[in-house]
Specification:
The complex is a heterodimer of chains A (about 350) and B (about 400).
Chain A: H1 2-19, H2 24-31, E1 34-38, E2 47-48, E3 54-55, H3 57-70, E4 76-80, H4 86-91, E5 97-98, H5 106-110, E6 114-116, E7 121-123, E8 125-130, E9 144-149, H6 153-164, E10 169-174, H7 177-185, E11 191-195, H8 196-204, E12 212-214, E13 222-224, E14 227-229, H9 233-252, H10 259-264, H11 270-276, H12 282-286, H13 292-300, H14 303-310
Parallel strand pairs in A: 1-4, 1-5, 9-10, 9-11
Antiparallel strand pairs in A: 2-3, 6-14, 7-13, 8-11, 8-12
Chain B: H1 16-19, H2 21-53, H3 84-117, H4 122-136, H5 140-154, E1 176-178, E2 181-184, E3 186-189, H6 191-221, H7 228-245, E4 250-253, E5 268-271, H8 272-299, H9 302-310, H10 315-345, H11 357-369, H12 372-401
The chains are: A alpha/beta (about 350), B mainly alpha (about 400).
């Protein structure tokens, strides 16, 4: 009899642990906050400010998702993750979504059982070198010592690039961006390589940013985007369409400034109406309130606003839109229609 | 007439499992075993249930797939096209390298500090006490970071040494100390150079043979042969003679500062990460070994020293012939756990970018393949095997020197 109870308890516990990954949206709603994995600190993308409040481009995506679910952009617990810990954190359910300049690759999508919910930044791997080294091309780097963040796709791209150009290098593996910056500035490595956006952000935090140059070569495709666990499509949809809502909002001219007015009453543009919930049932289909997209946009602005505010040309990071312009402006940022 | 009868062989009843002292301990052991097995079974079952729920499986196929990343410090041939298994081997060898180096230097530091702490010189003993207390009371992780940080910041990069008019000259024209590591000249052996090396090795063997002969002679006849200068003579004279007779077949490969604009090339290079982790582990564990050594020496009763002195043995010989052999019996067992600590603490090497097995298998391979459970299981297996081996080897040594009770 007692044995039966024990085995019964074991089975239930095992099943409960197994089921924990399903129905993330319900878990998040029950918890009252979103657990969002971000970097340990990369200025412009995700870093805590002087008051300890997280801010940045990736943080903006987390806040938009939280706003879409709760109507409150501050209902987020930010979990700093390193390149090594991020996937374990997501797979184990410690975080609900990961918005941490993570490259969408085949093996991460298929083999690691994750689901990328879109691309919020089209990036590529670049090289940062001191200007006085007089290097003008990455192909001149034969024999250089290269600082590289371990556990990233950049590590593999780097090996491939040097191998295919038949030149050699010494890798110095480092754990975090801050450590890489320290090693690079102390001259322990000649070159620092990671995603070009990350390099721009890192350079912006240097004392003399102009003493360092980004080499022209971009040696890889790095589509960065938020991701969730495989197998919970409803939750994946929430994150995917929140990102799409931000992108569509920019395309349709909906900004954080005018979103309240546009959502107050149906406008002449039916797609704006569907997006903002004044027409149709899109929010309910997602399992959210009708004004989910309005809240998401009001949280930090549309995609373009987030970009300009955190990493755009008027910030110290100074990234041009480039590939990340709307498709109507010759970029790759493109959302499926809200219909 | 018998006053003692065999206890009655009563039939076995179930209640005896609890009430009878003969069986009670078995009962509790069996219960404990079942509970333990259930706990392990629960954890394993949980693991497989969760893996199945996420559509994952346990597979070691990734070991045969090309690793795709490069490793800076390697003792065997390795490229980014080598397999993950090869990368793991590189890591294992690097772990063993730093463990062996650090065990050796930690022992030297420890014995020196332990003996000197008992010195009658106030300054020396207080200095050693300061060393022991400050190093063993701050976590090794922090020491590793401090030492690597100091190396990175205080030493120059490689660039000042490079080019036509370098800002810095190499020491003696052949040694360069940068925050990337130490460059030193490397010997290059011609075919005849190996002959010289062989002669040198033979001379070292000969030196030991001579010393053994001298010792036997001393025990047999009481005649003491000189030890110091003949040893030096035996080791160096034949090798030096051979070197010149064979036409200087060993040359030096001096580090080249003109090879390219990034790094000093050629010669013998020891990377900064290896130096940092090696030094940090040695100096940290050395503090613990120093205390073991002090405890061992103080465990030898003062009467032994006094008796030896009364026999007219010189102070240096009292230490090496009377005190230390007895102290070793106390020192060796805790020394084993210090060696094990070094080996296990070497897994912190990734902090300074040293590619030990935790960094390759448990770091990059784990990350790039996402096979966390498999990699961690392999890591556990490796550290377990290596720790048991070290423990076993030193226990053999301990058995050889421990007090023989006959």
């Amino acid at each position: 009899m007692k044995k039966t109870v024990l085995f019964g308890a074991l089975t239930v516990a095992g099943l409960a642990a197994g089921m924990a990954s399903a129905a993330t949206l319900d878990d998040v709603k029950a918890r009252g906050s979103l657990n969002c994995g971000v970097t340990t600190g990369l200025v412009g993308f995700a870093s805590p400010d002087a008051n300890g409040v997280w801010d940045g481009f990736d943080v903006g995506v987390c806040r938009a998702v939280a706003a879409a679910i709760f109507g409150d952009p501050t209902a987020v617990e930010f979990v700093p993750t390193t390149g090594k810990t991020r996937f374990t954190a997501l797979a184990s359910g410690e975080i609900d979504m990961l918005a941490r300049n993570t490259t969408w690759t085949f093996s991460r999508d298929i083999d690691l059982k994750f689901e990328f919910t879109g691309v919020n930044y089209y990036d590529g791997q670049g090289f940062l070198v001191p200007k006085d080294l007089g290097v003008s091309s990455a192909k001149d780097l034969d024999g250089a010592t290269v600082c590289i963040q371990t556990g990233t796709t950049t590590e593999l791209n780097l090996a491939d690039f040097f191998r295919s150009n038949n030149i050699s290098y010494d890798p110095v593996p480092i754990e975090t961006n801050a450590e890489g910056q320290q090693q690079y500035l102390a001259g322990a490595c000649d070159v620092y390589t990671t995603d070009a956006s990350g390099l721009a952000a890192t350079r912006a935090s240097f004392e003399n940013p102009n003493d360092h140059v980004l080499l022209p070569e971009i040696i890889s495709k790095e589509p960065l985007g938020p991701l969730v666990r495989h197998g919970d499509n409803d939750w994946g949809d929430v994150v995917r369409w929140t990102l799409n809502a931000l992108i569509t909002a920019e395309e349709l001219g909906v900004t954080s400034a005018n979103v309240a007015d546009l959502a107050a009453a149906p406008t002449d543009n039916p797609e704006v109406n569907r997006l903002l919930g004044t027409e149709g049932e899109l929010g309910a289909m997602l399992g959210l309130e009708a004004d989910w997209a309005k809240n998401a946009i009001a949280a930090g602005g549309n995609y373009g606003e987030l970009f300009e505010k955190n990493i755009g040309e008027n910030t110290p990071i100074g990234l041009a839109r480039g590939l990340n312009a709307q498709w109507t402006e010759g970029g790759l940022i493109y959302s499926p229609p809200f219909r | 007439m018998t006053s003692i009868t065999d206890p009655q062989q009563g039939s076995f009843r179930l209640s005896m499992l609890i009430n009878d002292t003969r069986y009670r301990s078995y009962t509790f052991q069996a219960i404990a075993f079942v509970v333990l097995a259930l706990c392990i079974g629960f954890v394993v079952n949980n693991l497989f249930t969760n893996l199945a729920a996420q559509g994952l499986d346990i597979s070691f196929d990734f070991l045969g797939v090309p690793a795709g990343y490069d490793i800076n410090q390697r003792l065997i041939e390795y490229t980014s096209q080598s397999t993950n298994l090869r990368a793991t081997m590189v890591g294992i060898l690097n772990t063993l390298l730093v463990a062996v180096l650090a065990c050796a230097t930690a022992t030297v530091f420890g014995v020196l500090a332990g003996v000197l702490r008992l010195s009658n010189n106030w300054l020396v003993s207080k200095l050693m006490a300061f060393y022991v207390e400050i190093f063993r009371n701050i976590p090794v992780l922090i020491w590793i970071l401090i030492i690597y940080g100091i190396m990175t910041i205080s030493l120059p990069g490689a660039r000042p040494y490079l080019g036509e008019n370098p800002d810095r000259e190499m020491l003696f024209g052949m040694f360069a100390f940068t925050n990337r590591g130490v460059n030193a000249p490397a010997p290059v052996f011609d075919p005849l150079g190996w002959v010289v090396l062989a002669i040198f090795v033979l001379s070292v063997v000969g030196m030991f043979l001579y010393r053994r002969y001298a010792k036997q002679l001393l025990y047999k006849t009481g005649r003491l042969l000189p030890m110091g200068w003949p040893s030096v003579l035996i080791v160096f004279v034949p090798a030096i003679l051979a070197f010149f007779v064979l036409g200087q077949p060993i040359t030096l490969d001096i580090p080249d500062t003109m090879a390219n604009r990034f790094n000093i090339k050629g010669g013998f290079q020891i990377g900064a990460p290896l130096i940092a982790i090696w030094f940090a582990l040695s100096i940290y564990t050395g503090a613990f070994i120093a205390e073991n050594v002090r405890a061992g020496i103080q465990a030898v009763s003062k009467g032994q020293t006094e008796a030896a002195a009364a026999l007219g043995i010189r102070p240096g010989r009292i230490m090496s012939l009377v005190v230390l052999p007895q102290a070793l019996r106390v020192i060796i067992p805790p020394l084993i756990s210090n060696y094990l600590n070094i080996t296990k603490n070497s897994s912190l090497a990734i902090l300074v970018g040293y590619a030990d097995v935790t960094a390759t298998l448990g770091g990059i391979t784990l990350n790039q393949t996402g096979r966390a459970i498999e990699c961690v299981l392999l890591l556990m297996l490796f550290y377990l095997v290596i720790s048991l081996l070290i423990s076993g080897l030193i226990n053999i040594y301990n058995n050889a020197i421990k007090l023989k009770e006959r």
